[in-house]
Amino acid sequence: MLRYSPLIALLVLAVPVLCGLAGTVLPAFGYLPALGGEDFSLLPFEELFSQTGIWRSISQSFFIGVISTALSVMLVAGFVSAWYGTRLFKKVQYLVSPLLSVPHAAAAFGFAFMIAPSGFFARLFSPWLTGWERPLDLLIVNDQLGLALIAGLVVKEVPFLLLVTLAALPQIAAIKSSHLTQSLGYGRMAGFLLSTWPSVYRQIRLPIFAVIAYASANVDMAIILGPATPYTLPVRLVGWMNDPDLKMRFMACAGACVQIAVTAFALLVWILIERFTGAASRSLAAKGNRYTHDWGFRVTASVLMTASALIVFGGLLVLALWSVSGLWQFPNTLPNTLSFKNWMRALPGLSQPLITTIIIGGASVAISIIISLACLAREQQTGRNGGNRALLLLYLPLLVPQIGFLFGLQLLLLSVNAIASWTALILVHVVFVLPYVFLSLSAPWRAFDKRYDSIGAALGSSNWRIFWRIRTPMLLRAILAACAVGFAVSIGQYLPTLLIGAGRFPTITTEAVALGSGGNRRIIGIYAFMQMMLPFIGFLLASTLPALIFRNRRGITGL
Questions:
Q1: PROSITE patterns attached here (predicted)?
Q2: Model confidence pLDDT, tens digit, residues 384-428
Q3: CB 477 within 8 A of CB 496
Q4: 91 CB contacts (<8 Å, ≥6 apart)?
Q5: Residue 255, H or E segment
Q6: What is the pLDDT of residues 91-145, one digit of tens each?
Q7: How many C-beta neighbours within 10 Å does residue 352 have?
Q8: CA pair distance 38, 247, nearest whole angstrom
Q9: From the CB of residue 33, how many other CB atoms can be counted at a distance below 10 Å?
Q10: Distance between CA atoms of 209 and 399, rounded to whole angstroms?
Q11: Spatial distance between the Cα atoms of 152 and 160, rounded to a whole number of angstroms
C-alpha cells in the first residue's frame, strides 16, 4: 500500500486547490448555473471595480504583503548575519522559537492590546511619563495605512522565517564561511551577507513566497489589525461571499481572481527585488570594502529581534490578564481586582467551540501524520524524494491564496450537498496541515541512522516490525513534535473553517475573531488565551510523553 502514498498525497494537496480554482474562475466570468449564470460575461468584474474604494483595498493588500515580508526578511537576515554562532544567538533563538506555535489571531489580539491608545504600552508609561490621564484619540489599531497590520505580520512571521533559516544554515557550512570572510578582514555582517546569505536564501525562497501569499491575502489578522475604511480586499471578499444576496457570489469570485492576481504580482515584484538586491550585493562585493564598523547595526538587529519576541509574549500575558481582570481603568498599569467570574460566565459558550476545535485538529493531524509516514517510508524504499517538484507540491496550498480557491471549493461542495460536514471540514484542514507535518517530520526521518534498520533486518524482522519496534520508538519525539505543529496549524485556520463549515462549526478561532468587533476585552482575552493554550498543551505533550513512555529506557528519549 505504500506504493500509492505519494498519489494519495498528490490528491489531498492538489485536487482541492485545482478544483477550488476552477470553481472560483467560472463564477467570476458569470458561469454558475445553480444561481442562474448560464453564459460567460465580464459583468462580475465590472460590478467589482465599481465598488467604492476597491482600488484602495487592492493596493493595500499588495503593499501590506510586500512590505511586511521585506521587513521580516531584513530582520531575520540582519540578526542571523550579526549573531549566528554566538551565545546571544542561541538565547534569542530559544526565545523566538515557541512563538511559531502561537495562532495568528491570538498574536494579533495580543499585539492590539499592547499598542492600542488604551493598551498596555500607554498604561505602562502613563501618567508619570506621558501625563495622559485618558487614552489619546488616535487611530493606532485599524489605521488607514495598515501600519498596525504590517507590524503584526512582521512579529508573527519572523519566528517562522528564523526557524526555516536555522534549518538551512547547517546545509551550507555557514560557520566555516563566516570564519573565512572574517579572516579576510570583512565585518561579521558584511561577510555573512555577501558570502553566505545568498546560499541560505535559495534554501528558504519557497517559505518566503508562502509568507508573501499569506500576508497579501490574510483575513483574520486583517480583521483584527487592518484598515477598516475600506477593509483590505480579502476581508471585503469574505463579506460579499457571506452576503444573503446570492448574486454577490459572482462578484466575490471575481474579487478572488483579482486577489490571486494581486498575490502573483506581489511575487513578481519580489522576484524583481531579488534580482536588484543580488546585483547590488555583487557590486558591493566587487568593490572590496570590508565594512568592519558594524557594531551599531548588530546591536540594532538584536534589539529588534528581541523586542519582536517580547511584544508577542507581552501581548499573550496581557490577554491572560484581561481574561481574569475586574475593574481596569486607564491609566492603571494593572487591574484593581482579579477574578475568575469572566471565565465562569464564558465557559458554557466556550465548551462547544473547544470540542469542535479539538476534534477537527486531532482528526486532521492523524490523517496528515499517516500520509506523511507512508510517503517517507515509500521514499526510503525507492531512494527517491521527489526533489523540487515534491517540494513545490507541498507548498502549493501555501502559495495559492486561501481565498482564491476556497470560494470555488465552497461552491463545488454546495453543488454536491457536501458543505458544512465534518468530513469536508477535516479534509480541508488536512490540505493546510499536511505540508507542515511532512516538513517537520522529513528532516528527522531522513537523518535517522539506517544501520538500525539493517540490524533489525539481520535479526529476521520484517519491514513492518522494524518500523514499529525500531523506527517509531526512536523517532517518537519527532513524530509527536510534527503532530503538535500540525495541531497548531489546524487551530489557526480561520477562513477554511468559516467557509467550508458554513458557520455551523464554530471553533475557538472563528469565535475569537467574531468577538473582536465587540470590544469586550475580557471575553476576547478568554477566547484568545484559550486559542494560545491549545498549541502550548500540544507541544507540552510532545515533549513530555516520550520521557513518560520510555521512562525505563532513558537513552532513547534523547534520540
A1: ABC_TM1
A2: 777 777 888 888 999 999 999 999 998 888 888 888 889 999 999
A3: no
A4: none
A5: helix 248-287
A6: 888 888 788 888 999 999 999 999 999 899 999 998 888 888 888 888 899 899 9
A7: 13
A8: 13
A9: 9
A10: 7
A11: 14
